[in-house]
Design goal:
There is one protein chain. By secondary structure, the chain is of the alpha/beta class. It has helices spanning about 5-10, 40-45, 55, 65-70, 90-100, 115-125, 125-135, 140-145, 195-205, 220-225, 245-255, 275-280, 305, 320-325, 340-350, 370-385, 405-415, 425-455, 485-490, and strands spanning about 20-25, 25-30, 75, 155, 170, 175, 180, 210, 235, 260-265, 290, 295, 330-335, 355, 395-400, 420, 470. It has an eight-stranded parallel barrel, surrounded by six helices. The longest helix has about 35 residues, at about 425-455. It binds benzoyl-formic acid. Benzoyl-formic acid binds near residues 215, 270, 308, 309 and 362.
């Protein structure tokens, strides 16, 4: 039986005039796609006639090539035994990075979530760090997300017999050992070869819920297949302009047992993440550059995220909500609500909840932090609809800037059902793989035990609004002590530089 195309046949197509590449054992004719590739043609041409899987994997969702090329460009399986290995040149920077990886401290020396970030920053590739850490414009919002928690202080209760404390809870009716969930973040393989599976496996061990991203590096089915029996998973959805694709994806997810659909509503266009944008995507094939301008067929100066986000539907509207309700029975939650008016509309539309979020500060610069928005949402929904929170029928979630159990407890006290944590888990697995994520969750457990006792709350139900003073939450200029652990990880933006001559 034929094993498909031979390596030799593919290798003959190694020029810009006829360019075939192999990804995951299949050959594709990408000749006509070269000028349109968001990452530039140069990087594809480097793999012309060869196996590009290793380069492709971290930066693309798994079926991107399959979905983007018309069927006639799919050339079928290749006999991989006959394909020559691509020689990878190791740069000095990469050698130095490998040395730093060897010098990582043992996990027992990692004491808090900031520590993961500090180590990850030193051991990740530049591209991965730029993509994960970057945020919109001057990155003020991303810092505000963390700083907002500094404006909320506790009013603990004493003498409450806190020998036994329990910080487990339910999220959309599903058990969670912590009032947090692992929120969706794209491109997990940029940080670690196992990508999102690090999160799936650690979540299973620690009884927390993972929200699977639409733009994961591992395929959706792979992530679900790697879940333990009975493990709860949610799905984050970027809505495709082709609604049939979205419908299929959503219905497939429901069949596979996903327990909640979080529709992202704050990203009709991706924010300018300049750290990511400055990571040049080895873009230009010299033939496409004229007078210092890259051919305008595709704007490839935009960094990893913008490059793969063009499918997202900018026309998404409140009018589409009934359509979502008609295609699935999963609870629907809007992710990225930023004011009480929209939270109220979501409630009136019959949705199961909202995530108050500014997308980790990666979208609209100067959109308020989720925890600040939480305060007004709780106030106005009580006033206008008589709701109290936490509320089983309409759940409020918050994400952005969370690094400590105290941050989570503040949001829970103010009415959130649970809090999403994204980047810290990315940093944990980028630095230490699955074990890093497990350690991060252990640290949170330790912090919870101590802080529940100190707060005088024996269960999550006992974490009530009276336990916090959020009177300053809307004051954006207040004097707070510096958070040096956080700021030592924060990397200043670079300004434009003259060209080297
Ligand atoms: O924040 C992001 O980077 C993000 O949500 C995204 C969106 C589209 C493509 C890649 C990432």
């Amino acid at each position: 039986m034929s094993k498909g195309l031979s390596g030799k046949e593919v290798a003959a197509h190694n020029t810009a005039e006829s360019c075939w590449i192999i990804v995951h054992g299949k050959a594709y004719d990408v000749t006509e796609f070269l000028p349109e590739h968001p990452g530039g043609s140069k990087i594809i041409l480097k793999y012309a006639g060869k196996d590009a899987t290793a380069e492709y994997d971290p930066i693309h969702p798994p079926n991107a090539i399959h979905d983007n090329l018309p069927p006639e460009k799919h050339l079928g399986p290749v006999d991989l035994d006959t394909v020559l290995k691509v020689e990878v040149t190791i740069t000095d920077e990469e050698t130095a990075r490998q040395e730093r990886i060897q010098q990582r401290p043992p996990l027992t020396e990692i004491l808090n979530l900031h520590d993961f970030e500090a180590i990850a920053r030193q051991v990740m590739t530049e591209k991965a760090w730029a993509y994960y850490s970057s945020a919109a414009d001057d990155e003020i919002t991303t810092r505000e997300n963390h700083a907002a928690y500094h404006r909320i202080w506790f009013r603990p209760r004493i003498l409450r017999s806190v020998t036994n404390v329990d910080w487990s809870t339910k999220i959309l009716g599903h058990a969670s050992k912590l009032p947090i969930y692992i929120t969706a973040t794209a491109l997990g393989k940029l940080g670690h070869p196992d990508g999102e599976l690090n999160l799936t496996r650690a979540a299973a061990k620690h009884g927390v819920i993972q929200m699977i991203p639409t733009l994961a590096s591992c395929s959706f089915d792979e992530i679900v297949d790697n879940a333990a029996p009975g493990q709860t998973q949610f799905l984050q959805l970027y809505v495709n302009s082709d609604r049939e694709i979205t419908k299929k994806f959503v219905q497939h997810a429901e069949k596979r047992g996903i327990k909640g659909l979080f529709i992202t509503v704050d990203a009709p266009q991706l924010g300018r993440r300049e750290k990511d944008m400055r990571m040049k995507f080895e873009a230009e094939d010299p033939r496409e550059v004229t007078d210092n301008k890259v051919s305008n067929k595709v704007d490839r100066s935009q960094g990893a995220a913008r490059a793969i986000s063009s499918f997202i539907d900018t026309s998404l509207d409140w009018k589409d909500i009934p359509w979502f309700q008609s295609i699935t029975k999963m609870p629907l939650i809007l992710k990225g609500v930023q004011c009480w008016e929209d939270a109220l509309m979501a409630y009136d539309a019959g949705l199961a909840g909202v995530v108050l979020s500014n997308h980790g500060g990666r979208q609209l610069e100067f959109s308020r932090s989720g925890v600040e928005t939480l305060v007004e949402v709780v106030r106005e929904l009580k006033l206008r609809r008589g709701l109290t929170f936490p509320n089983e029928k309409f759940q409020l979630f918050v994400d952005g800037g969370v690094r400590r159990a105290t941050d989570v407890l503040k949001a829970v006290a103010l009415g959130a059902t649970a809090v999403g944590i994204g980047r810290p888990f990315l940093y944990a697995f980028s630095a230490y793989g699955q074990e890093g994520v497990e350690r991060a969750l252990e640290i949170l457990h330790d912090e919870f035990e101590m802080n529940m006792r100190l707060l005088g709350a024996r269960t999550i139900k006992e974490v009530v609004p009276e336990m916090v003073d959020a009177g300053s939450i809307h004051q954006h200029i207040v004097s707070v002590p510096d958070d040096s652990l956080y700021y030592s990880n924060y990397e200043s933006m670079l300004s434009a530089r003259l060209k080297d001559v």
